[in-house]
Amino acid sequence: MPKNVLVRNIAEDTLEKLKKKAAANNRSLQEELKELLEVHAGPDIVEVRKMVRENLEKYRKEDRKFSDSTKDIREGRER
To answer: What is the rounded distance in angstroms from the CA atom of residue 28 to the CA atom of residue 21?
Structure first.
């Protein structure tokens, strides 16, 4: 269940920066703050490494192969 948070005593210049950022992202201030909090509360590097290792092990067990994309990247840059 979602909870509410109240933040007091934010500096005016900080609030103005947040409002500008929200406007640039076509969001309300509340939506922008919620997004910032959710991003910063996301998985830390240890969790990310664990997820990557688990997926890599899964792909290896399935004998999945991935092609080298270097050629495709170079061709894309040359366009």
So the answer is: 10
Q: Where are the beta strands (DSSP E) in 1-79?
A: none
pLDDT, tens digit (0-9, with 9 covering 90-100), for 7-29: 999 999 999 999 999 999 999 99
Nearest to 29 by CA among 15, 12, 10: 15
Residues 6+ apart with CB under 8 A from 70: none
> Residue 65's pLDDT is what?
80
The Cα–Cα gap between 20 and 32 comes to: 10
Residues 6+ apart with CB under 8 A from 19: 29
Instruction: Return contacts of 24-33, CB within 8 angstroms, 24+ apart.
Output: none
